[in-house]
Amino acid sequence: MNDILGLAGAAAALGIGMLIGLERERHKGRGDSRACAGLRTFAITALLGYVAMQVGGGLLVGIMAICLAVLVSAAYWRSLGTDPGVTSEVALFTVLVLGALCGTAPELAIAIGVVVAGLLTYRQKLHHFARSQLTEAEMRDGLVLLVAALVVLPLAPDRFIGPYAAINLRTICTLTVLLMAVGAIGHVAVRNLGVRYGYTVSAIASGFASSIVTIASMGHLATKEPDNVKILSAAAMLSNLATVTQVGLILGAVDIGLLRHMWGPLLCGLAATALYGLGLMFPNPASGTHQPIKVGGAFNLKLALGLALAMTGITFLSSMVLSHFGEVGVMVTATLTGFADAHSSTASIASLAKAGLLPFDAIAEPVLIAVSSNSLSKCLVAWVSGGRRFAAYVIPGQVLLTLAMWAGILLH
C-alpha cells in the first residue's frame, strides 16, 4: 500500500513539473538567448523535491533549495542583459517545493501547480488587464475586499456579546464581506457582458447593495427615457432577484439549518420575479435600451459598512424587544425595519435564532413580514421616482413577488 502511495506522489510531482515545464518551454526561446529552464529541468526539479523530502525530510529539501539558488543565480546573471525577469526562476523554486509537498498532500500540490501554470500561461492577458482595464477605483476596492476577507474576518471573534447576547462580530464581518464580494462579482459581470444587457445585469448586481436604490435609479431613468420604460421596469423588478437571493445567503451564512424553513418562500419568490421580469423584457425592446449603467468601483463600501452597522443596531433592538415582549416584538421590529432594508431584518432575525432566542421554525413569518414591508416601500419609491407608467409595471410585480413568497410556506 505504501509503495502505491509513493508512486502516486512521484507521479503527481512529475505531472506538476511537466505541466509547468511545458508552459515554460514554449516561452524559453532558442539559441544562446534561451531561458535557463524548460520542460526537462522543471520535471527533474519536481522529482528532486519529492525524493529529497522522502529521503531527508525538510532539511534535505532546504539544502537542495540552496544549491538550486546558486545555479539559478548564475543563470540569471548570465541572461540579465536580455531577460531581466525572474518568473522562470521563481517558478523553478515553486516546482521544487510542490514536488516535496506531493509526499504529504498531493491534491493540494496539484491544485497549486495548476494555478501556477494558469498564471504563467495567461501572462499577457493579466498584464493587459492590470495596465489597461483595471481602474484605480477597482484596484482599491479589490484590496479592501481582500483585507476584509483575509485579515479582518479571520480575526473577528465567533461568539455572542452584548447585554442581550445578540451580537456576533464574526457574523457581522461575514455578511459585510459577502455583500462586498457579491457586488464585485456583479461588477465584473457588467464589465464582461458589455452593453446589451447592461441595465438588467447592473440592476441585479446593484440589488445586492440596495434594491430600493436600484428601483429609484431605474425610475429616474424612466422619466428621462420614456420609450425604454418597459426594459427599465424589467430591470427594476429583476433587482428583487438579488433581494431574495441575499435573504437566502444571509440565512445560510448565519446557520445553514435556517434554510430548511425558508426554501419554499425563497424558491417561489425567485420564480415569480424571474417570470415577471422576463415577461417585461421579451419581446426585445426598442433600440437604444442597451446603454449600460455607469458604475464606479467594484462595490459600494459605504453601503456595506452601513448595512453592517444597521444590522448591529437592529439585532440589538430585536433582541431587546424579544426579551421584553416575546415573539410578537420580533414581528413589530421586522415590519418597521423592513421598510428600509429587508437584509438587516433578516440578518437580525437569523442571529436571534442562532443565539437560541427564537426557534428555527418561527423565522419564516418575521422574515416574510420584513420582505413584505420592503416590497411596499419599493412600490412607493417606484411611484415617486418613475411616475405612474413606471409604477404600473413595477407595483404588480412586487405584489406578485410578495404573494408568491407567502404561498411558499404551504410547501413545507
From TrEMBL:
Residues 177-386 form the DUF4010 domain. The chain crosses the membrane at residues 6-22, 42-71, 91-122, 143-161, 167-190, 197-219, 231-251, 263-283, 303-322, 390-411. Keywords: Membrane, Transmembrane, Transmembrane helix. It comes from the Bacteria. Residues 12-128 form the MgtC/SapB/SrpB/YhiD N-terminal domain. InterPro entries: DUF4010, MgtC_SapB_SrpB_YhiD_N. This is Uncharacterized protein. It comes from Pseudomonas frederiksbergensis. The lineage of its organism: Bacteria, Pseudomonadati, Pseudomonadota, Gammaproteobacteria, Pseudomonadales.
